[in-house]
## 1
Amino acid sequence: MTEPVDATLPLRRSFVRLGGRPLVQHQLDMALAAGCERLICLVRSLEPEVIALHQRAERAGLLFNTVTAPRDLSALVTAQDDLVVIYEGLLADPESVAKLIEQGPGVFVQPIETGLAAGFERIDINHASAGMLRIPGRLIEELVQLPPDCDVPSSLTRIALQAGLATREVPVAARSGMGWQMITSDDEAHAIEHQWIAHKLGSARLVSPGRRLVRLAILGFASSLLHAGNASLIALASTLAVLALALGAAWMDWAATSFLLAALAWLSLCSATMLRRLEAPLAAGEVKHETGLAALDWFFDAVLVLLIHWAAPPLAGTSPLLSLALPVTLLLLVRLSGKIPAVPGAALIADRALLALLLAVCAAAGLVEWAIALMSVVLAATILATSSARGG
């Protein structure tokens, strides 16, 4: 974390923000995926981004060190260590990094034509660097012979090649799309941010209509929301506010309106989940407790049960507990269906926005109790048929 983005600006390349997070935080995801046990950062000073990286690395169980001179590395790296070197500015998919590191020591390269165009340095007539290498720790001692202001990653690449380490080409699949980038400025980060967000959210074809709608909205606004900070918390607050309105509408006996508001609340909850995934992805070896999101997910279902109960009041003499049994059963079956990919239309069934819209139509027609009973029977039969077909 040493190179400025521009001679006139103090901002380091590693501190350029992508998706609201400094690039070096994305690189920590790569280091965690690679199974690293110690993080050593070459820095100019202990800037706030370095301190934040230190705190997160230690929470993930990594030892953390900073050095200000290349020769200081030899005191931290032994001959028996393996060293994963990440170039300043490299953005790579953590899963791809993990697979490459598993191949063993080597200098990771790519074809010269694509590598130079993407901003990577030339290695030889046919290859450009891929911005990463895995080398034996003993090679660190060679840095002592070099000037104090040498480019450490580039120098270690030359040292590794002179020592006879193999070159390993990064597969085309790993380099495609947002898989492998070199970012050296804010402009470059902004240019790819929309594509990076789309890549992290996954394919729209694999999700339900409700989640697809949320995905489109996030693609349109996520960049500004993520850079503003606390985007997921704002979405969570919106979810609670809309759920309160839904409960108020149900209390006023506006059943259809309450279910429409519940559908909006579910979309808001989905957006909070997606934004949290972009803000703080769960890296390998890192433990995070998303109890807030999980609890709100269950709370939403509890509210939906209550809305159903109010929309279809029990017959006289029926206990409240007995009248709640059917909507509770329905929501549990909905959850169970969503956990079994083999169930036909599992994503559609798990989409609470669609369920709430369907209930709104039924409420307008006065058929809520019949719809709940029918859906419960159909879901139970579907799960049983799926289980039987799989030999369960």
## 2
Amino acid sequence: MALEKKYYNYIRICVVIFYLSCGSSTYSQEPTRDVRKKTSIGICKYKIFYTCRFSKDTIKKEPLYDKHVLKIGDTLSHYSSMLADKADSVWYNLRETFIQPNKNGADGINPYEKAGLGQNECPNYEDVFMGYPYEGISTVMTRIITKEFIYEEPVPKFKWKILSDTITISGYKCKKATTSFRGRDYEVWFTPFIPIRQGPWKFNGLPGLILKAADTKGYFEWIATGIEKSNNEGIYIYRFDKVNMQKTTRKDVLNLLNKQWKDPIGLMFYVNQEILGTGYKDEKTGKLVLVYRGDTYNYQKPYIPQLELE
């Protein structure tokens, strides 16, 4: 039993150290969502696929990519990362394999590599449900390191300015619109020929599906890559116990994400001390230091761009 726990904990600490070395906002979290624990909340009629490009810092602006899907039902929708789902499945299989005492090779396991993700691919662990649990309400589920945080808010209302510019995306003629939302300015392209008043992430309210969106500073971009009619596929939400799920507010989530670059070690201890080994507070900086296998980790990450700044 001790050997099983040793291998399992080592896999987890490798992933957490990997989390410290890359990622942005809710990206690159530890993939521990149990893919078997889902509850159906609706039926999907259409699926819109997007490639999301984002930056992991504001200095180099090195691009990372994720593959997202927007599932549209009659009364609700679900926007999520397909790479996150893929990593979850692989991670769960790794747990089943490497906690067995007769297995070797646990050291250095990277579930993202095992899932076939490229070096510039990074999953986003933020799910956005529109119209759930009630009409006019949005539910956001965000994973920060090893813990899920969930909050509800009214479906965001955007003040759109529709312009005369047009382009063609994936064969659809699109019109340009601009907006400001929670500290960022955006330019989007929507097509009135697909009467779905939504788009990637939290964008909604235009008279047509949004096929492209980007912030004006170049940190985030979404581009539609495909549209499918679904054959009564389910829309699901993950189930978590009280230990791994915390109900909170959007403001509290933003505070935690700010801590991610200001004091990442402190954030790790706040979320889940069990996997971190030991730690102590640096008297000079007041920040927490992680000690693992004789190595210390204490640093401030470059400023991480977040979608919502306020």
## 3
Amino acid sequence: MDITNLEKIANNLVAPGKGILAADESNGTMSKRLEAVGIEPSEENRRKYRVNLFASDNYEKAISGIILYDETIRQKMDDGTDIPDAMINRGVYPGIKVDTGTKEFEGRDDEKITEGLDDLDIRCKEYFEIGARFAKWRAVISIGEDSPTDSCIRANAQSLAKYARICQEQGLVPIIEPEVLMDGLHSAEKCMEVTSKVLRMTFEECEKNGVHLPGTLLKPNMIISGKMNKEKISRDQVAEMTVRCLSENVPSEIPGIVFLSGGQSDEDATAHLDIMNKMDKKHPWELSYSYGRALQASALKQWATGTPESSQLAFLKRAEMNHKARYGKWGMELE
């Protein structure tokens, strides 16, 4: 395990003003998004849409790394350059989603366990050779009447820790993503309680597995009430509760926290990050972003109804807004 290089990459991924673009939607998910905007969901159209984003002028100002799906990391840009090489040439780290999806946990239809540990070491070695320098594994925790159970949280924490250790042994910085979903009727307080437990168990398992935390990034949800709960908390409350939850449960050795947008609107995701970075609170980690839809939703609409150039401009606009939020310098007037 090359600890020095892992730490260097992890810190570069959360360099000031920068964050990560999550472009690792599975073929099925990306096809549904293309269909939703009236585009035929083919492999070539998935490639065309993504490489148009990756060809945007100066996106590296705000983007330090891009998480790719297996199909995408093997594809080429329009000029024939391998996609990972095109990113590396612009000083952007290629990343790769390595989990293989979820299945029901112990026969329960309200809980999931993420799969993908089988042959993970072999796949990580190949991805490193292709050009990947970091990886992502997403665990999904839902809040319901009888969920999540401690056994489900623990099982997902164990998988996340094993994944992280395997990645580091193969030279990849692991992004640990234990996502507590926004779906449901739960309050923000319940989200905070569950997220705290999830983070606590995840880092307990990381310690047991010898994960090198300074060469790791965390991709958590923010503390938000469930989508079906009519009592919404303010943006300031989201930011305050999220930072408090992280301060109580995330080890100081982690160099950066790259939030997922998790169903938030583009502006909410940016605003919450901005408020956190405006706070007069000292914390040991960088607060950054690893957004998918919050960086891409408007770009995809423009790609379907406008031009390739207008799609790039929509993507660059969201990237610039989040770049400013990293410094706590975003405001609604910029939108």
## 4
Amino acid sequence: MWIRRKIVIRKKFEVPIISVGNLIVGGSGKTPFTIALAARYDDVYIISRGYGRQSEGLIEVSRRGRILTDVKQSGDEPMLMAISLPHASVIVSEDRHKAITLAQKNGAKLIMLDDGFNRVEIEKFEIVLEPNEIKNFFPFPAGPFREFWFSKKYADIVAKEGRDFFREVRIVDPTSRMLLITAISNPQRLDPFLPEGVVQKIYLPDHDYFDEEEIRRLMNEGSAQSILCTSKDRVKMEGFKLPISEMKLKLEINDAVLKRVDTYIRNSMETMKVK
């Protein structure tokens, strides 16, 4: 990655592109950050790799809020973004260039790349999310970093949790006995937000899918009254006839960050008008 950043020539597209990424393996809030940011604009296209999906190639997940596929084809995070953003459009594709071209053809005024910091061949405005505490600065596998930690100098904004953005969690339909079941990376990060009444915790691999009958069996074993899961998990439980308590996460983004993003978009559009 360090060599690529030095030698790759970036392709510039005639549309503002914002990347929301991170340098650390695992969850850092990219999806809720992207949702919170995209909700501020019209005709936004979000482009994602679609990790964990049971499909390949380019797939339109939604177009201006209309859902066009199912979660197994889209992946959990793109489907969550599609459901959460009724005025945006979501595309999954391994080939980001192809997806950007389609978004432009469909009239996108703004494109956001989910987890796009490593796509160094694309000219874009870079936002890198950083956890509030980092204990190990080594690259993977010795540490949590995808590349050298100092690569964040290539970002336009390094948004630190607790300073530049904040998490708010509320529990929808809680019960007195809940079975926590989740398929997210670093699931222990949910601990500070867990309510009373969690009788057992079941952790599955990131992006994994759920078996309704297996969950029912676990609920019966633990005498649980409901499942407790994240919104990312819940999109993969569509049609489940089980009581669900949902951890709804919302991100509040610092005004200073939002102003810098707005300035980038405004300047990009003015430059394109001149051309």
